[in-house]
Amino acid sequence: MTESIEADVVVVGAGVHGSSAALHLARAGKKTVLLEQFTVPHSRGSSHGQTRIIRRTNFGTPALFPLLEDSYRQWEAIQEEAGEVLLRPSPLLVLGTKEKQPLMEKMAESAKESGNAPRWLSPAIANNMFGLGCGSDTLAFIDSSGGVLMADKCVATLQRLFRAAHGMLLDGWPVDEIKVERDGSVEVRGQRGRVRATSLVLCPGPWAAPLLAKVGVQIPVRVERVSVLYWRVKDTSKTSTTSFLDVSDDRGHFYGLPDIEYPGLVKLCFHGGPEVHPEWRDKGDSTEIRERVMEYVRKKFPCLEPRPAIEESCMYTTTPDEEFILDRHPKYKNIVFAAGFSGTGFKIGPVVGKILSQLALGHPPSYDLSEFSLSRFSKSKF
After folding, report:
1. Taking a C-beta distance cutoff of 8 angstroms, is the pair 218, 232 a contact?
2. If we measure between CA atoms, which residue out of 63, 9, 89, 13 comes closest to residue 348?
3. How many Å apart are CA 167 and CA 186, to the nearest integer?
4. What is the 3-state secondary structure (H, E, C) of 296-310?
5. Which of 107, 176, 190, 355 has the fewest CB atoms within 10 Å, i.e. the most exposed one?
6. What is the mean pLDDT of residues 64-86?
7. In this predicted model, what pLDDT tens digit does every residue of 229-279 receive, in sequence order?
8. What is the spatial distance between Cα 273 and Cα 285, in angstroms, rounded to a whole number?
C-alpha cells in the first residue's frame, strides 16, 4: 500500500544537514516530512561514525567564520537540551612547515578572532608533548577551543528532537522522481508513495549530482571514498586528548582524533581518496592512500604502531574549490539545496539547517551566502 502525504515542507536526506533543517522547520511550526533512502541509522553516507572534529581554526573562506561561531552555540544548546554529551573539549594541534607559514598564520588568526589566542610550539616541544617526530622546519600551534563531536549521537539527537517537534521521519524511502506542479507545489515520488509539499529541501550528500539532476540542476561535485584508519598507541599511558590537523603536504592534509571510539586506538586519516560512485563505494581502490598514511605515521607518529589496526570507510562529496554549495533553485525558489561539503561540513550542521529552513520559508538568510552559491562555478549550467 503506497503512502500519500501532504506537508508544508519535505526534506530529502537525513544526514546531519537534512536532520538539522527538518528540526528547524518543525520548530517553526511547519508540517515537515524528512525522507531517508536507507534505514536509520546507517553507514552508507557521510554523516555516520562516532566522531568528528569541530574547530574554529579555519583554512577556508573567511565567510565561514560566523557560521562556525553560530554552530558552536547551537551544538552546545542542543547538547544541554538533550542531556547527554555531544561535544567534548579537545584542543586542536595544528601542524605545518615553514613553506606553509602564510596558511598557518591565517589559521592562527582565525582562532584568535574567536577569542582563543593560539599557543605556538617549537618542534622540540611539540615532539615531546605528543610523541611526534616533526622536523626542525615544523610550525605548530594549539587552538584550545577545538573539540570532538560525537557524530552518531548528534544525528540521532537531531532526529529525536525533530520527532518530538511533531516531525515525520520516513526511512527506507528512496526518491525516484521530483515533480513541480503547476501551482508551484512539489511532489516527491518513490516506490513507497508520494509526498506533496509547498517547499522542498535537498540534502543529498554523495547522491547530490543524480538527485539534483531530477530538478534540472547540474552540480560540479566529485565523490571520494575516504579510508578511516585507526592506529594502536604503543604506550596508552601517554595517550593525548588532543586532535590534530597537519597541512604540510601539498597533496592534502592529514587529521586525527584521540582514542574516543576504540580504547587504545586513535583515528588518523588523509583528507581525500579515490573517486567512486556512491552506490559502489567500497569498489574504490584505496591502496595508494593507505600507503601514504602509513608512510606519514612512520615519519611523524613514532608513538603509533606502523600499520592500521582497523579500516572503515566514508564518502566525501567535493566541489572544485572545496567550499560547499548552499543555494536556491534558479527557477523554483521553493526548492533549496545544500551539497559538496568536501569532508568538512559536519561541524556546521546546525547553522546549515537553520539557513536551509530560512530559505525554504522564503525568509532572508542570516548570513551572506554569495561565497557558497552554485553560480560561482562558471561552467555550471541549469
Report:
1. no
2. 63
3. 18
4. HHHHHCCCECCCCCE
5. 176
6. 96
7. 999 999 877 667 899 999 999 999 999 999 999 999 999 999 999 999 999
8. 9
Residue 141 is placed in which grid cell? 600551534
Q: How far apart are CA 247 and CA 103, in angstroms?
A: 8
Count the alpha carbons within 13 Å of 381 in the hemisphere toward its beta carbon.
Answer: 1
β-strands 177-180, 92-97: how paired? unpaired
Cell of 37: 533512502
Could you tell me the three cell numbers for 374? 552554485
- Cell numbers found for residue 364: 532572508
How many other C-beta atoms lie within 10 A of the C-beta of residue 365? 16
Give the separation between CA 364 and CA 367, rounded to whole angstroms: 9
CB 168 within 8 A of CB 8: no
Cell numbers found for residue 122: 617549537
From residue 182, alpha-carbon distances to 12, 187, 195, 332 in Å are: 21, 11, 16, 11
Q: How many CB atoms lie within 10 A of CB 30?
A: 21
Cα–Cα distance, 360 to 278 (Å, whole number): 27
Tell me: the pLDDT tens digits for 113-157?
A: 888 899 999 999 999 999 999 999 999 999 999 999 999 999 999
Single out the residue of 265, 271, 341 nearest to residue 303, CA to CA.
265
What length is written for the chain?
A: 382
Helix ranges (DSSP H) in the chain: 16-27, 65-82, 101-113, 123-130, 151-164, 208-213, 287-300, 349-360
In the three-class reduction of DSSP (H, G, I as helix; E, B as strand; rest coil), residue 262 is classed as strand
With beta carbons less than 8 A apart as the criterion, state whether 237 and 316 touch. Answer: no
Q: Rounded to an integer, what distance in angstroms lies between the CA atom of residue 81 and that of residue 109?
A: 32
Measuring CA to CA, which residue among 148, 172, 166, 164 is closest to residue 14?
A: 172
Residue 205, Cα to own-chain centre: how many angstroms? 9
Q: Which three cell numbers stand for residue 194?
A: 508520494
pTM of the model: 0.95
Distance of alpha carbon 1 from its chain centroid, rounded?
36
CA distances 220 to 53, 127, 204, 206, 315, Å, are 26, 41, 14, 12, 16
